[in-house]
Design a protein that fits this description.
Layout (H helix, E strand, L loop, with lengths): L4 E9 L4 E11 L2 H17 L8 H23 L10 E3 L2 E6 L8 E5 L2 H8 L3 E3 L1 H7 L8 H11 L1
Parallel strand pairs: 3-6
Antiparallel strand pairs: 1-2, 4-5
Helix pairs in contact: 1-2, 2-3
């Protein structure tokens, strides 16, 4: 959302190593979704993990999930594949609020992205909510970045 695009890439992996980088695209969000997400980010800052979540989270989560699902499907089909050719879609969603862990306190993060809805739309396995799981395990909330960046550097 920060750049207004949905980042979509095809990679071949055994789950530990990236064997091949395929095609990728930056699919622009429609202006209506960008506006909705900007409002959502503002309400997330006001919420600050205190009290009930803002109602806008549900609306934004569905819109974001549908837009990202469409971008995935379009990239896959434009590459000459079908969703049945895809083993799993990795869906990290969109961070709307993040508080890093501190000594003696786990961090908190709120990600928008409905993996079950994406699965229903695409008809394939979807791995999602990586950041929240990493935070609960005491991490910083970015469990994929180190492995991905290491693979990119090996390719350079």
């Amino acid at each position: 959302v920060l750049d207004g695009n949905i980042d979509v890439a095809l990679i071949k992996t055994d789950g530990e190593r990236i064997a091949d980088f395929g095609t990728y695209t930056l699919a622009p969000y429609p202006q209506s979704i960008r506006t909705l997400l900007e409002e959502t980010l503002g309400q997330a800052r006001s919420w600050n993990f205190t009290g009930p979540e803002p109602a806008i989270f549900h609306e934004a989560e569905e819109a974001l999930t549908r837009a990202q699902s469409a971008a995935v499907k379009l990239l896959v089909e434009n590459y000459g594949l079908t969703m049945t050719d895809i083993g799993v879609v990795g869906f990290h969603g969109q961070t709307v609020l993040h508080r890093a862990p501190q000594a003696g306190r786990l961090g908190e993060t709120r990600q928008l992205g409905d993996g079950e809805l994406m699965h229903a739309i695409l008809g394939t396995k979807v791995a999602y909510d990586f950041r929240s799981a990493d935070m609960r395990a005491g991490g910083q909330g970015a469990p994929l970045s180190a492995a991905y960046h290491a693979a990119l550097l090996r390719e350079a």
